[in-house]
Amino acid sequence: MNAKHFFNLKKYLSTFTLLLVAKLIMACPLCEEQQPKMLKGISHGAGPDSNWDMVIVIITAIMVLATLFYTVKWLIKPEEKSATHIKRLFIED
């Protein structure tokens, strides 16, 4: 098996795995009936018990997105220019 066939096989297996996982996480018909309109077909289990559940989910989603944004931003461009920054103990210009 040469490298080209290996990468094609790897690509097909990755695609199959992603499709299988996507199918497994989609809601079944029974769960879909229990979900509110906004979550139909997305998640399994019983829907939120009250509006407070949705508030908690929205606040958590905002926190996760903010964390993701700042993580990517500071990984791409850290902007630590201070000569006394701790990274200077390990990195020399």
Describe this protein's structure.
- The N and C termini lie far apart (45 Å).
- Helix content is 59%, strand content 0%.
- It is an all-alpha fold and 93 residues long.
- The mean pLDDT is 79.
- It is built from three helices and no strands.
Strand content of the residues, in percent?
Answer: under 5%
Number of helices: 3
- The termini sit apart by 45 Å
What can be said about the biggest beta sheet? Answer: none
- Give the helix proportion (percent range): 55-70%
Order of helices and strands: HHH
**Low-pLDDT ranges:** none
Quaternary status: single chain
Structural class: mainly alpha
Q: For the CA atoms, what is the radius of gyration?
A: 22 Å
Shape: flat
DSSP strand tally: 0
Mean pLDDT figure:
79
Blueprint of the fold:
Blueprint: H1 3-25, H2 29-34, H3 51-76
In short:
This protein is mainly alpha-helical and 93 residues long.
List key phrases describing it.
59% helix; mainly alpha; 93 residues
